[in-house]
Amino acid sequence: MDLFTSQHAGLSALFAPRSIAVVGASSNAQKIGGIPVDYQRRFGFGGAVYPVNPKADRIQDLPAWPSLRAIGQPVDLAILAVPAPLVDGAFDDAVAAGVKGVVLFSSGFAEIGADGAAAQARLGARARAAGVRLIGPNCLGFMNVARHVYATFSPAPNVGRVQPGRIGLVSQSGAFGAYAYAMARERGVGLSLWATTGNEADVQFADCLAWLAQDPGTDVIMGYIEGCRDGPRLRAALALAQAAGKPVVMVKVGSTALGAQAAASHTAALAGDDAVYDAVFRRYGVLRARTLTEFFDLAHSAAVAGRPRDRSIGLFTLSGGVGALMADDACAQGLDVRPLSTAAQDRLRDWVPFAAPRNPVDITGQVTNDMTLMERSARVMLDDQRFASWLGFLAAAGASDAFWPVLRSLVAALREAYPDTLLAISTLLSPARRAELEAMRCLVFADPSDGIRTIAALAGLPAPGAAVAAAAPPRGTPVVLAPGALSEPAALALLADAGVPVVAYRVVHGADEAAAAAEALGGAVALKVVSADIAHKSDVGGVALRLQGAAQVRAAFERTRVSARAALPGARLDGALVARMVDGAGVECIAGVHRDPVFGPILMFGLGGIHVETLRDVALRPLPLAPGDAQAMLRELRGAAILDGARGRPPVDRDALAATLQALADFALRAGDTLASAEINPLIARPAGEGGCVAVDALVVGSAA
Amino acid sequence: MDLFTSQHAGLSALFAPRSIAVVGASSNAQKIGGIPVDYQRRFGFGGAVYPVNPKADRIQDLPAWPSLRAIGQPVDLAILAVPAPLVDGAFDDAVAAGVKGVVLFSSGFAEIGADGAAAQARLGARARAAGVRLIGPNCLGFMNVARHVYATFSPAPNVGRVQPGRIGLVSQSGAFGAYAYAMARERGVGLSLWATTGNEADVQFADCLAWLAQDPGTDVIMGYIEGCRDGPRLRAALALAQAAGKPVVMVKVGSTALGAQAAASHTAALAGDDAVYDAVFRRYGVLRARTLTEFFDLAHSAAVAGRPRDRSIGLFTLSGGVGALMADDACAQGLDVRPLSTAAQDRLRDWVPFAAPRNPVDITGQVTNDMTLMERSARVMLDDQRFASWLGFLAAAGASDAFWPVLRSLVAALREAYPDTLLAISTLLSPARRAELEAMRCLVFADPSDGIRTIAALAGLPAPGAAVAAAAPPRGTPVVLAPGALSEPAALALLADAGVPVVAYRVVHGADEAAAAAEALGGAVALKVVSADIAHKSDVGGVALRLQGAAQVRAAFERTRVSARAALPGARLDGALVARMVDGAGVECIAGVHRDPVFGPILMFGLGGIHVETLRDVALRPLPLAPGDAQAMLRELRGAAILDGARGRPPVDRDALAATLQALADFALRAGDTLASAEINPLIARPAGEGGCVAVDALVVGSAA
Fold first, then answer.
1. What is the pLDDT of residues A147-181, one digit of tens each?
2. With contacts defined as CB-CB under 8 Å, which chain A residues touch B400?
3. Which CATH code, of 3.20.20.140, 3.40.50.261, 3.50.50.60, 1.10.10.10, is assigned to A307-459?
4. What Pfam families would the database entry show (chains A, B) (predicted)?
5. Choosing among A615, A637, A638, A652, which should be mutated to test the B contact, i.e. which has the most B CBs within 10 A?
6. Are B182 and A396 inside 8 Å of each other by CB?
7. Please, what is the Cα angle at A302 between A298 and A305, to 5 degrees?
8. A212-261 pLDDT, tens per residue?
9. Angle, vertex CA B44, rays to CA B39 and CA B47, nearest 5
10. Smallest CA–CA separation between A431 and chain B, in Å?
11. Closest CA to A360 of A338, A376, A379
């Protein structure tokens, strides 16, 4: 947070400047250097505007200056619209003139190759050294809609401007940002700040997000990201937004490498990048939009209505068919469509004998004979069940002039009587009427399914105060791992020490000792060669299972050594591990930690066998875990029902599993950068009262030095 | 088909009448009996209109008649807008007057209880006896938009009329139909016929669908259904539409019982109703829409663009970010985003060095400097790969007046050069401009994700000629089953005879015979008591597995009899079944047939164990199977990858599985109504060359007499 607090002032000078200079200013208002001068003059910017161009006296009716230094007045923001070779000189000038922020449109940097990347890196370093905030290069700049700052050469505002509002939008891509701007305009969505970050030599996507999290003019944040340069910085920014209670809606595409490469990311490995982003978003309650429509629906709705108290919803309809459709949708989205009490149902049926009074409430076409039925029914519903959300499908009524006053007074009455209920109406409405209902914090949808989907997403926003319960620091002392894979007994010992329940085992160095260990452990045992040089012991015949009695154990000790030696002559054998067989009554799971290059250690949990390997059904979380994360991971699996006791078995002990995941997460944090990966496979989950869960095999790998 | 051919003429007189009478006509154009008179007069109906009302001489400036008979001119259609008690008399009058079709608005029939249902049934029988087609009661009627027939009292056309078009829309629900009418109007979707079927005393949803399938004015059919009264009739209508090559888009809600009951259908059993509808829709290539937006997107797009040749798609973008988003979407939807050849890629890169030339093709912002790049790039893409579909994301350009002529000529040029390519543009466009591109058979989407989703759905429509390859009649002679469960050996013998590969087994009646059978079979065996009275043999200790050698087999024979007798003293034991153990190397599957009350025999296939029981991952098909259905069922499972060889195993023999499903389907058809259900569980699927698949246990139940 300190990082952002200190950066905040610098970004404020950039995003809310009192004076703006345009370097490379042009008299032609269609050119890259002419557009910002034109916009600043026409669109109501209140501060000073200084065109800089050594070859002109006046530009677009303003006095022109030969350099930034020559202006002799404070310049908060300099927009550099000059070719790449002139950028260094212009930047020198900006630093000398005491400019606080720079927007750099110019292309010709990292996107053209190594030389450009090096020039860009130098520029970023110079900006940081000089304390100047730099946005770009290769970007479309930004617009502070509320303050009429148009530091962009996008033609989009010329077609029509977005209205001021309380949604901030940041995009790494200029073209995407421009389309989003146009869509916001067409849909009547108001914006506070619109920013594109381009190559991000200095200011990153995460910095803009953090600034918006602290901006009093912004309630909701929309982000478009292709790839994150600094995972911890993005996480800190998301935490800031969460703490501020500001919903974040994000579109993330496959990768920065476009097109087919982006497509290819879908076939990536188990814990592929995109799944990690998903996990990070989930950690901070980010709503991930999969389409542009969803992007705007979610952000606009969050700005209009905020988060419902919980997932309960009352559904009201004038059409039984649409009621059933809404019920179908609401169930699929996990909303709580609880029925009205019998008393409330009776009351509705008194008014309309053929009404469906349960929930959805279908008051039928009777409403055309008695318009008051709508408000009366809604009040019965909300008084009876205190639904967090109420959605009314009023068919095409909204398009009728005769009905509009009834609809408006219905919403006004419900808003007054139920101030903390999320209200939504599905009907066809003109934009002006829609805006009137939205001003009463009532959402409006033409398609009731959009309403259900949006309300369900808003109900998934973090509860107020969720961010306060931050993750506790890991328990226990630091762990330092040597590079490379640990032997299995070493890995098991380390995990056992970290609080992971592991199978009972002994390390032995001879056949007699193996037989004695088996007897001490009791029952059937498994025997595996121990060698730090052998990653896959069963592939070299180094594993024997279900051994009963001393003779079988002795024979297995000798046989596995011979097999392993034959397969890998150079491998050092360090005895064998004898472990009690865990009977097959539990559910086979897998748990692990791997280090993501962007976001650091990621915890993984899944069901074993085909679920992980073939169906790729795993839950991921960045570390440290938030309270409740481990339990939530168990619920997230598509196959979660298997933990509830498939095939007649009682449910497994979820608390024991969650505690094991927490122990593994703490272990990974204590090992820090010295841990490359850790995997428990299988982790057998058993019903409560049958021993909780137990790690049967483990692989721990230290990072290369 | 004969059914529909003979009905067709009757429905044509109903839907395309030359003369219309309104019984219960009112001078008040706001009333149920006044609205149709008003609509017929104002909206351009070309034929005669006869208001019928014994208490008036003139109605709305037309001469009024005391009865239908009194008119003395042919009346094709009579609209009955009278209270329920007067319906019988009005219907008598209609029959006597030789009316061909009746629309019955009146409520007070099946929806009010048993008496109403009886009256409705009588009315339906009388209509059929008299050869009069009757739509309703309790319906909103219909509109033949092309012929200006407004046989409805819905206020929707008063707000604004839908334009004539080539999409027919049928809805069981009046309220849903009215909303759909309003949405069609707002979205500029043109309709041929709009019909609501209400209580369906005579004309059913399926009849309207069949009529539209044969109507030369209709290309695409939209349907909203709550519940089907006659499964074979609906299937025949869908087959008719498929044979006519007309896409059908359908919304089906949970059930006719509204609200919470509809919601409850989501938690129904394994092969619950809704899943059966899904299977029937899949069988006839029906596109099932899950939202109103999808309903219109799909139907309108099908009408504009039809079906693409295959799933290949070329993606073009001015924004790399949106290109990645489109690639993500296209992959998720199973479209074939194949890359351009190296030569084509080189050519694009010659023009724009920083272009992404693979597919998606991102030609970058360079297009603003050279507008011809768009058409040139599209031609390179389409010449190189002959994509069935081409989707271009042109950002906000469509909203710019300067760009519009470029866009229009781009589409015109591509349409001329590639007449059989599905063209689609994603940009922001006014309705008028959108219509202009649609007239060139080019789809337009504001959200590129909607475009991808819609194109993928259209690619799923049945290929031309698919309907011609109708299902072959079942092979073999009829089978007649006695009521009740067959014994396991009887079931296995019957299935083996039907072509299902079954495990090697013997039926034995003594311990020595059991031991001899085991020796003859070889290897380990299973032994199970045989009894038609015991459905779950393992629950009564009647099963012993993995028996080796004569002693174990003898002991098991005695033990299972004792256990079964103890558990079920009254059960008749009929010896034991000794079967060769099938080793655990295969994939455990389950296959079965059950009789759906609406659609008859339904074939089911799934993976065994948790996949069926906990994850409910099954594929269903109505019988008879269409060619390719059995293989398609294997692909449809969420866990289909397991058949491809999970955990290092080779893929299972899909051909053997498909042949077994076909054999089971044929068996079910040969058994006809005498079969209640058949289930093979487990059906072990093994790799090709390892014996195909084999039924290990089977349960066949004959229908109660």
1. 999 999 998 898 899 999 999 999 998 888 998 99
2. 155, 159
3. 3.40.50.261
4. ATP-grasp_5, CoA_binding_2, Ligase_CoA_2, Succ_CoA_lig
5. A615
6. yes
7. 130
8. 999 999 999 999 988 788 899 999 999 999 999 999 999 988 633 333 34
9. 95
10. 13
11. A338
